[in-house]
């Protein structure tokens, strides 16, 4: 199954299915249930954290034939139309490609019409920070005197680019990046539904590489499953992602501890020759130094916070004892600086 199909197949259809964003889900679900709908909402956050997905679910909850309701039924005609993207009263606009004066004029005209079939007319504007000044002006006039049964949902990765006059008239919800355990749990759920066996280390690696984005995690999982293997194995995941294994980091610690400068050069040359992702290599190396610093300072008391397997915990505990705390901290800071420069 392709990454795109995997993402589409398991796209959440109700608030309860969305990974993370609990506070936002609770507020919007309550608003749909009570009918206290704001004229405009601003959803901001990094890519792939559920902004557009939650916007569509909210549009379904507002227009479901069982409304007012906290969750859409996904069975009625309106819910099915919105899911399929063909509902006449739920208009999705790509702010990046609808930036002209004519687009702004058309938006202003569309706002003036009452809902045709649904209870609410919902405008979902993705990448809304890309709108032109004319489009923002048209939107501002509407928000100053909002028509009944119309609401706007503006989704953006760059909220700082919005005019203050627009921001002051929106309910702003900042979507958080998901922590690694939450993404890993979501991916394990998908693998269970797909009846695919897996190594926990493989899932953790994909979750770490996703960097807080559920969509990125789903995309990487789709790529991993495209291998067609019966089991998702950590070594295979590292291979297609171009990531270094633990053995590389242990080898690096060995040459650093023995002050073998030629050995360090040879090891880094191997990393580059293998085509490994240098940015992620530095990120993982910084994580290694962080883990060693915590283990050196707090000992076994730090283990619950590190999410390491028993074997890895013993190995890193051993290495932490071989270096002075000041040396570990200095290496950690230099690695972070290198990561910022890549």
Verbal overview:
With 342 residues, this protein is an alpha/beta fold. It folds into 3 domains: 21-174, Rossmann fold (3-Layer(aba) Sandwich), CATH 3.40.50; 180-241, Helicase, Ruva Protein, domain 3 (Orthogonal Bundle); 246-341, Zinc Finger, Delta Prime, domain 3 (Up-down Bundle), CATH 1.20.272. Helix content is 54%, strand content 9%. The chain contains 16 helices and 7 strands. The protein has helices at residues 3-9, 22-34, 51-63, 77-84, 101-111, 133-144, 164-167, 180-193, 200-209, 214-225, 234-241, 246-257, 261-273, 278-298, 310-320, 325-341; strands at 40-44, 90-94, 121-126, 150-156, 171-174, 197-198, 231-232. Helix 9 packs across helix 10 and helix 14 packs antiparallel against helix 16 (325-341). It starts with a helix and ends with a helix.
Give the SSE layout:
Elements: H1 3-9, H2 22-34, E1 40-44, H3 51-63, H4 77-84, E2 90-94, H5 101-111, E3 121-126, H6 133-144, E4 150-156, H7 164-167, E5 171-174, H8 180-193, E6 197-198, H9 200-209, H10 214-225, E7 231-232, H11 234-241, H12 246-257, H13 261-273, H14 278-298, H15 310-320, H16 325-341
Parallel strand pairs: 1-4, 1-5, 2-3, 3-4, 6-7
Helix pairs in contact: 1-10, 2-3, 3-4, 5-6, 8-9, 9-10, 9-11, 12-13, 14-15, 14-16
